[in-house]
Amino acid sequence: MPNSNHSPFRFPCHLPLLIFCAQHPPLSTTCLFLISLSISSSLCVGSTFELYRKMGDISCSNGNEVNGKSHSLAGYRKSCWYEEEIEENLRWCFALNSILHTGATQYQDIALLDTKPFGKALVIDGKLQSAEIDEFIYHESLVHPALLHHPNPKSIFIMGGGEGSTAREILRHKTVEKVVMCDIDEEVVDFCKSYLVVNREAFCDPRLELVINDARAELESREECFDVIIGDLADPIEGGPCYQLYTKSFYESTVKPRLSPGGIFVTQAGPAGVFSHTEVFSCIHNTLRQVFKHVVAYSAHIPSFADIWGWVMASDSPFLLNAEELDLRMKQRIKGENRYIDGKTFSSASTLSKVVRTSLDNETQVYTEGTARFIYGHGTALKQYQA
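Structure tokens predicted for thermospermine synthase (387 residues):
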């Protein structure tokens, strides 16, 4: 748990959050006031809502007129919104109940929002990482296919995973004896331990070894091998802390040597939609094909991400289980019921659309530090450099 000198409430708080105050009909056009709000670490939820109420006094004028008339927001229903810029000409926003916390660590900006459609949502470097309503889709998809395809997974290494949800899903497997979770950002881990109640049991499990370190350095320093290595890293964004961990050299010289015979590597691989899969998904898939004999790409729709998301699983041993065999292993090995993944769901998830299959088949780029692809956005390191 965080000590008094490293309380999440004492992070330097300067994360810009985009908040909308919206005026609804009877006006023919909705008037939106976009405010880039820099929130002080001392700002509590109550004062946040006081600020929202004051925004209702703003009038539409000086270019914000509707049908040539100026209109006051007073008396109309108002909502506060979080906005994320997915790409240059596309933004995704949703209504907020409150801002629970904003802050900055050495590596990343961080925010915890209470959203109306998705519950509590963790945002890092301006990108939504998970939301409590649908995070089970992402984490079940990341964890269970790899562990179920392995004949007897006992030791697992997680790269990243600071929020604890990946560890939670792994620890449901009865065969698992040891989980090493390695995250570079101690403040994010402490923050998640404090605020994400659903994962507190996982953080207390004696099988979990929490390490604060760079995943590359940690894997290279260890002599032991692991049955499954899981990449639950932040998206590869320019200036972010993780994009070097999607490269061929990393997979080849660091990950693969730390896998036991028959071991499996799986990583989250970014957006995998019809239009978005060429950002990083196809390149990560092709990069792993250069390193491992057998590679399976699969995807699922994550509502809070506003897109289909992708994962890539790789091994030098073939993936031979059918849907019925996967279901049998789930019944034998996993405590409790999955909400999302079962045998048929995985079979469907790994049957990609024609356009995505074609792109993956034709992809030639290999992910290196010199030829890295990034999803839209910039990490804290680049923003600090540009400043």
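Residues 60 and 71 are 5 Å apart (CA to CA).
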